[in-house]
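Q: Given only this backbone (108 positions), what sequence would you predict?
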């Protein structure tokens, strides 16, 4: 049930030979250059639709950008505050441990 089924490779029957390639010589005759009587007009690129900014959409874009900046700023400030609080608590723990160890060494 859990054993993979591997495909079997078919064995060639008889003698397998590569196909023969026949090389035939050809002659090259110089031709006359084609004269261009009509100028070639390059194909114009398809025109893209232009974006129309109305006062309402501009106001929505400004409001959305302001909201994004405020949210990102609030997240960054909260992360900085969390790092600062963690550093302060580690410093307080270090001072308490230092005083406990120092007082224990004085009593001996």
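A: Predicted residues:
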């Amino acid at each position: 049930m859990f054993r993979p089924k591997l495909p079997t490779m078919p064995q060639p029957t008889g003698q397998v030979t590569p196909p023969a390639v026949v090389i035939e010589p050809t002659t090259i005759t110089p031709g006359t250059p084609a004269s261009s009587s009509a100028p070639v007009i390059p194909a114009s690129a398809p025109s893209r639709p232009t974006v129309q900014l109305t006062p309402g959409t501009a106001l929505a874009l400004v409001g959305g950008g302001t909201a994004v900046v405020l949210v990102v700023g609030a997240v960054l400030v909260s992360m900085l505050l969390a790092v600062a609080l963690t550093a302060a608590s580690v410093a307080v723990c270090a001072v308490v441990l230092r005083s406990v160890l120092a007082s224990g060494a004085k009593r001996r």
